[in-house]
Amino acid sequence: MGLALAFLPWTEQFARLLEWLIPCREEECEENPGQPRYLDPNMVQVPSLALGQVRMEAGRMGALLEKMLHEGFESVYLLDLEKIGQVRRWDDSIDHLYHAMSDYLAIISRNELPAPQSRALLNAMSVIGNMESIGDIIETNLHHLVHSAADRGISPSPEVRQRAEPMEKLVHAALQDAIRAFVKNDPALADKVISLQEKVDELDEQFKLYYLGQIRASGGESRDEHTYEMSLIDSFKRIFYHCRRIAKRVRDADSGREGA
To answer: Considering its fold, how many domains does the chain have in total?
Structure first.
């Protein structure tokens, strides 16, 4: 593994890290997306380089989250049980990457770090934690939504997708830009994500007004479909919340402040 590893304390955490930190080749990473590709154990004693590797691995994790988001919402619109099953398997890969990066960052923290690198490490921990939370929302909320709708015989109309599409596109863009902002350390891109809050609130208000109007007009007869739609919008909002937290970490790191 290299001379550097000889100086690292042999702890249970480090032993666990070595089990999954044999970087995979490109074709292997395609077959097993939960296997880290960039977390090189030989770099942990050079924190500036190791933190760069974490950013690169976060980029892989982000690409998988984007696939989960797209396929997850396709499964919601189509009630596709096979697709949502694949989303659940991808979330297992997200969890593996999260734990691998967490352990890698813990090993990096054993070094004597100057203040800027300490902040960068804490920010990275926060970012990957929010990314893991996004994966959980996509997997847990949407899996429940699809299966409960299938069990209750709810079939979303094409209009549901049309109404949800603006929020879906906004959240997908926010996820993509938040991850890129972290990977590239781009505070301007982070500010772009943060600024989307007003539009999210506006779309949410429109959905609530539409929902209440439809419930009143139907006398409650179509409540199940409208509740399904509102649950979908709630999932969008929760995902955006974590995208915004990632973006705030990037912005605040640039200004020397601690993010939320």
So the answer is: 1
